[in-house]
Amino acid sequence: MLPNTTMLPENLPEMIAKRVPQRLDLSSVSRRGFLLGVTASAGGLAIGFRPAQATEATSTEATSDAANPLEAYIEIAEDGSVTVLSSQFDMGQGSYHGLATLVVEELGCGWEKLSVRGVNGNTALYGNIAFGGAFQGSGGSTSIFTSWDRYRQAAATARAMLTQAAAQEWGVPAGEITIADGLIGHGDKAASLGAFAAAAAKLPVPGDVTLKAPDTWTEIGNPDLKRYDRVGKTKGQQDFTLDVKLPGMLTAVMIHPPKFGATVKSVDAAQAKAQPGVVDVVTIHRGVAVVAKDMWSAITGRDLVTVEWDESQAETRGTEQILSEYRALLDQPPQAVARNDGDTAAALAAADRVLEADYEFPFLAHAAMEPLNAAARMNADGTLEVWGGHQMPDLYQHIVSQVTGVDMANIRMHIMKTGGGFGRRAVGDADVVSEAVAIGQAIGWKAPVKVQWTRENDMRGGRYRPAYTHRLKAGLDKDGNIVAWENHIVGQSIMAGGPFGGMVQNGIDPTSVEGASNLPYAIPNLSVGLTTTDVKVPVLWWRSVGSTHTAYTTEAFLDEIAEAVGKDPVALRLDLLKDHPRHAAVLKLAAEKAGWGKPVAEGRALGIAVHESFQSYVAQVAEVSMEDGEIRVHRVVCAVDCGIAVNPDTIKAQMEGGVGFGLGAILREEITMTDGEVDQGNYDLYEPLRIDAMPVVEVHIVDSDANPTGVGEPGVPPIGPAVANAVAKLTGNRIRTLPMAKGMTT
Amino acid sequence: MTKFTLNGTEHTLDVDPGMPLLWALRDHVGLTGTKFGCGLAQCGACTVHVDGVPMRSCQTFVGDIEGASVTTIEGLSDKVAETVQQVWADLDVPQCGYCQSGQIMSAVALLTETQKPSDADIDDAMAGNLCRCATYHRIRAAIHEAANRLEA
Ligand code: FES
Ligand code: FES
User: Fold this and answer.
1) Rounded to an integer, what distance in angstroms lies between the CA atom of residue A113 and that of residue A568?
2) Domain 2Fe-2S ferredoxin-type spans what residues (chain B) (predicted)?
3) Which of A211, A666, A286, A312 is nearest to A439 (CA)?
4) Do B27 and A251 touch (CB under 8 A)?
5) pLDDT, tens digit, for every residue of A407-455?
6) Searching chain B, which residue's CA lies closest to the CA of residue A226?
7) Which strand ranges, in their side-by-side order, compose the sheet holding B69-71?
8) How far apart (Å, rounded) are the C-alpha atoms in residues A620 and A723?
9) ipTM of this model?
10) Residue A28 backbone class (left: φ over 0; alpha: ψ -120 to 50; beta: rest)
11) I need a surface site. Which of A70, A604, A695, B130 has the fewest CB within 10 A?
């Protein structure tokens, strides 16, 4: 069964560019704009969401627009097992569990027979509401946001249909039927949901269903609820793309250009091809692939291939040169202005004192534990199946079609769970996925093939968090008030030139300035400028994107100002956050829980930071000491406001993980290049956090009835500046070059 | 031909003795619970027990395990292992789960050797196991909790 792709627009990449909103401003997205509606498709009717305008005319027709949540979002098998069909991708952050929670809550199906499967192929059904519904994708911590109404409503509708089916069969009033824990009941009658699923799916779909009242929720907000997928993950039973094994499958490893932008000039593969186990060596659009009967034969075969590269178009600068050019650009006026309140230049000129600080951020690798991979099989009937961590499945399907010439309707994307992602699996050119199908094509589809990157492929394969420099200036009046704030950011654009290029407007890539251009502090004269650089190192969103650097500079610089004017960093922030109660509330909560203002243990200091990303608000207090010149973070107290807490334990886990991920990055992680070649190839030189450096993390969730927002990314940004501010207290040293292992000495 | 015991049963492998045990297990035996993360003994995702000792199977070669007893995540069965896996689930440790086979293999080896590990013992035993999702906070708590339950 191939998905129905007739709902996919022909020109998807252009559509994405045109229709995805300028900035991911969830507060301006109208959820009501996407009502449960009907979309006609070749395979019959499917229930979907479409803009209110289109459905308003039909909404009065109550049940006449029959459509089916039991096909589009929820599958119930005869044995009562329930499969949630997820539009959202799970790379470990728990989005499958989140969507399942919404369904279990409204459907009453219980957890015992529940599973979740990723689906795609119909933008009307699965398009991300945060992206204007224009395409299916996971990113910007939007999975719960986009699913909140959609999946609750689908489940409530399915429940109504099951109730109706049972009422008809049993000849009793629908109002007397109960559904709980996977059982439909009436009096002493009870049956599994599976017993009525087929009949229910044939009923007209009610146009109007009532969602459960918050005070009757048993799953949403339940702090004791554990992830449905946890047990398999403790037994090695969770399958990833690494584990895809198809009959007769071959394994390929890649040789990528050593410098970004280089292309294959010639290949000498004679020795490799003579080696037992090696099946073929093929040149594709992204390099050379060694195809073998197993992974070890592919790896050893690869060592025997010699490739000559054409480096005429390649990036040959090293990171030292790139960064020194960025430093020089800070002295020039910014190319574009992202925000301009008042008259910052005049206010700086008139200020009593001006503080200034430059910051420097390295390229960072996502370095997820599962190196990138994808598998593909051409079937005898001409259909093509592709397995992988398809974070933007419709776009990837288009690219697969372009690479292979196979019609979209004959391509099936199998969406696998992945060993991490952190942004790396949402890439506009579908890199590893396109490799898998190109290799399949190059070997004449004589067997299914999986391409598996080695760690070195993954580390040196590009798509890094871009390097940036920042210059911040603050003007203070005689009383120590901040009268001016200027922030100039220099670095590459993540979105320019890709399918999201349309979001870059007036020289501003919103992902370069987010977190800086929406600075919440009340400062009358404020300007944020951007200079976008032309570097051939491929870059990408990296867990929390712009906030990975903007939170650091804004929150560390504000701390410097607090010190300069002799104010408490919490008190100063609260003064400036009068119009931002959600920022203020998490700040206060974290400060209070961490014992801010009370004495700390000898040799230790507290640092604090607050930052909003993707409409979730997080404050963190880090308790830090110096041990033999090294930074040691003992404890982090974190307060988070992400609206209604759908899965409190997952929120905690994401905050803990965000702290560890962000802490690793600021302490030691950096990708450097020498003459255009990446120096780090593995975890020996690229050093994520290990357990011995992990602090105790204490998470406090703000009670809220606001619509839920995401938590996959927002835990990352505050940890860097919180630690930097504590280190400044301990040592007087303001670290402005990252990673800190380097910045301590420069 | 290499003869060894795998998860309690006699096994023979007819592959290049220089092949890392990791790829032999995954591609030739068909046990995929043991994961590949780095190939360089840097991440611990491939950890198995060889005669009870945690080893990185990406740097252990088929030729080295002649006559040895190898246990993978699929073959864990004793009380320590069951307790560790139960606690791991109770504390909801895994996020993506990719590193967790290796984490659990290292934790089981630690708790088999040391009944009441200190934080420093945990650092020593577990620092070779990377978790990019940074579930470390819960891993530490789970090891302490497993020690408590095993003692009770
Ligand atoms: S794969 Fe063996 S230690 Fe990383
Ligand atoms: S749980 Fe994802 S790498 Fe550890």
Assistant:
1) 53
2) 1-76
3) A286
4) yes
5) 999 999 999 999 999 999 999 999 999 999 999 999 999 999 999 999 9
6) B92
7) B9-13, B2-6, B69-71, B47-50, B53-56
8) 9
9) 0.98
10) alpha
11) A604
Of the candidates B48, B75, B102, which is a domain's last residue? B75
How far is it, in rounded angstroms, from Cα A135 to Cα A8? 9
CATH class of segment(s) A12-231: alpha beta
Tell me the residue range of the domain where B129 lies.
79-151
From first CA to last CA, the distance across chain A in angstroms is 60
Residue pointed to by tokens 């005898």: A380
What are the beta bridge partners of residue B53?
Answer: B50
Q: What is the topology classification, in CATH, of domain A241-312+372-452?
A: Aldehyde Oxidoreductase; domain 4 (3.30.365)
Nearest C-alpha of chain B: how many angstroms from A372?
A: 10
For the cut 70, the answer to whether the pLDDT of residue A46 exceeds it is no
- φ, ψ for residue A88 (rounded to 5)? -105, 150
Tell me, yes or no, if A682 comes closer than 8 A to chain B by beta carbon: yes
Q: What is the pTM of this model?
A: 0.94
* Residues B42 and B70 both lie in one domain: yes
- Do B9 and B71 sit in the same domain of this protein? yes
Of A296, A258, A462, nearest in space to A365 by CA: A462
Q: Which residue has the tokens 């993978």?
A: B72
Tell me how close the Cα of A21 comes to any Cα of chain B, in angstroms. Answer: 30
What's the structural domain count of chain B?
2
Q: What is the pLDDT of residue A12?
A: 63
CB distance B58 to ligand 1 below 6 Å = yes
Under an 8 A CB cutoff, do B98 and A92 touch?
A: yes
* Token reading at A70: 């039991």
List, for residues A493-512, the tens digit of each pLDDT value: 999 998 889 889 999 999 99
Same domain assignment for residues B106 and B88: yes
Contact criterion met (CB below 8 Å) for A484 and A474: yes
